[in-house]
């Protein structure tokens, strides 16, 4: 019973598969297929209607930097969405923790690393408080985080009084978003990552064959590796055609990889998916449901704090004005990428696909000089389509015929 509950209900390929399976595409990963197709069609359309500007190296580099904050907040949102909860305070927490970092740096003259730790520590404290109220006192997360967002908005305004912005003076803090990696590092690390990924896929395939388990056709395994390698090479080519790989983008990718490893290969990650699939059964199986809930809310707020530091670095200031769309964009990025609002299904890699769709739409419509009315309607339409797909997949997975 405990083993069954520890198996993650996710769109990721199970550890024993070793490669892409066409059957699993329609059973678990169906939500990713239309996203990939839509992303390709969107890129081709905007590139054709902007005279090639959309896919230019400069625009793609800027688009990536625009995506980093949303992707980091979305990564945090995924943590609680996987257990069927929601955190409506992430956008405000991002601004608040960014402001804490700036205040510690500018007013108290602490070094950049201490200021960052202060901002992350504030996020950790906020997340633990939210998690305790939700898990121990059992107040619905919607209400808790909605009230928290109002409180932290007031705290943010109080922290920056008598001004509404605070300019960053530390060059190291500003350099997080402004600087680029050396070519050897910016190109070398992604290539090493592709090699490790290819070795992992091949190793898993060999292990399955030795155990007499079913493996996908060799061409599917080769195509799986080839697609990843092609995407990485094209991305590096575009980055190196402009200024190189941004440090902030590499940090975001590193966070995604770290949390993928945590959710994919650890007992903690298995328990997260188990709780998302059936919380009561997980509790009866001996899983510390309350402890994991608190931990996930803490991780959500820490990642929101990280996003706030990225945003402060990119704008070179802390701002009391919270983006009215950041929360919705983060949740939309997760859902569009295939994370279920009902819990138990999704991958942290959803961050990349979902964020590219959201930011790509914004960027393309901006290049076409479209008004905010068009942008809001298009984003809303994309989000509702993603939610409909999620609901249909959920209904299919719970159908008695399955």
3D architecture notes:
The chain is an all-alpha fold and 402 residues long. The protein has one domain: ABC transporter involved in vitamin B12 uptake, BtuC (Orthogonal Bundle), CATH 1.10.3470. Helices cover 72% and strands 1% of the residues. It contains 17 helices and two strands. Strands 1-2 form a two-stranded antiparallel sheet. Helix 3 packs parallel to helix 16.
Task: Kindly summarize this structure in a few lines.
72% of the residues lie in helices and 1% in strands. It is an all-alpha fold.
Q: Output mean pLDDT.
A: 86
Main beta-sheet strand count, sense and barrel state: 2 strands, antiparallel
Q: Helix/strand/pairing class, anyone?
A: mainly alpha
Beta-strand content estimate: under 5%
Count of individual beta strands: 2
CATH level-1 class:
Mainly Alpha
Domains, number: 1
Count of alpha/pi helices: 17
Structural shape:
globular
Q: End-to-end span in angstroms?
A: 20 Å
Architecture in CATH?
Orthogonal Bundle
Helix content: over 70%
CATH topology-level name: ABC transporter involved in vitamin B12 uptake, BtuC
- Strand order, main sheet: write it out: 1-2
Uncertain runs are 1-31
């Amino acid at each position: 019973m405990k083993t069954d509950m520890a198996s993650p209900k996710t769109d990721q390929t199970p550890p024993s598969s070793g490669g892409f399976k066409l059957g699993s595409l329609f059973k678990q990963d169906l939500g990713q297929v239309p996203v990939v197709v839509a992303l390709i069609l969107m890129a081709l359309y905007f590139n054709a209607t902007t005279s090639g500007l959309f896919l230019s190296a400069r625009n793609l580099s800027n688009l990536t930097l625009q995506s980093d904050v949303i992707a980091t907040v979305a990564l945090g949102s995924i943590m609680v969405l996987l257990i069927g909860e929601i955190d409506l305070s992430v956008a405000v927490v991002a601004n608040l923790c960014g402001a804490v970092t700036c205040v510690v740096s500018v007013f108290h003259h602490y070094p950049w690393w201490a200021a960052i730790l202060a901002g992350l520590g504030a996020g950790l404290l906020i997340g633990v408080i939210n998690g305790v109220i939700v898990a121990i006192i059992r107040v619905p997360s919607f209400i808790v985080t909605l009230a928290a967002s109002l409180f932290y908005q007031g705290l943010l305004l109080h922290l920056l009084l008598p001004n509404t912005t605070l300019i960053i003076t530390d060059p190291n803090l500003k350099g997080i978003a402004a600087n680029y990696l050396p070519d050897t590092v910016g190109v070398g690390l992604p290539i090493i990552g592709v090699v490790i990924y290819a070795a992992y896929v091949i190793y898993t395939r060999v292990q399955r064959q030795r155990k007499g388990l079913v493996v996908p056709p060799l061409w599917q395994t080769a195509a799986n590796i080839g697609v990843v390698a092609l995407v990485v090479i094209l991305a590096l080519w575009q980055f190196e055609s402009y200024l190189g790989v941004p440090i902030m983008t590499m940090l975001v990718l590193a966070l995604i990889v770290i949390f993928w490893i945590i959710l994919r290969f650890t007992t903690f990650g298995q328990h997260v998916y188990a709780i998302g699939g059936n919380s009561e059964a997980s509790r009866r199986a001996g899983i510390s449901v309350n402890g994991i809930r608190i931990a996930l809310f803490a991780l959500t707020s820490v990642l929101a704090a990280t996003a706030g530091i990225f945003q402060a670095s990119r704008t070179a200031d802390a701002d009391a004005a919270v983006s009215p769309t950041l929360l919705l964009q983060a949740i939309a990025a997760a859902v569009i990428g295939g994370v279920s609002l009902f819990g138990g299904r999704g991958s942290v890699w959803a961050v990349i696909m979902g964020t590219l769709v959201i930011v790509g739409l914004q960027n393309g419509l901006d290049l076409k000089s479209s008004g905010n009315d068009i942008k809001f309607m298009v984003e809303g339409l994309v989000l509702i389509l993603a939610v409909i797909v999620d609901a249909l997949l959920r209904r299919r997975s719970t159908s008695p015929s399955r």
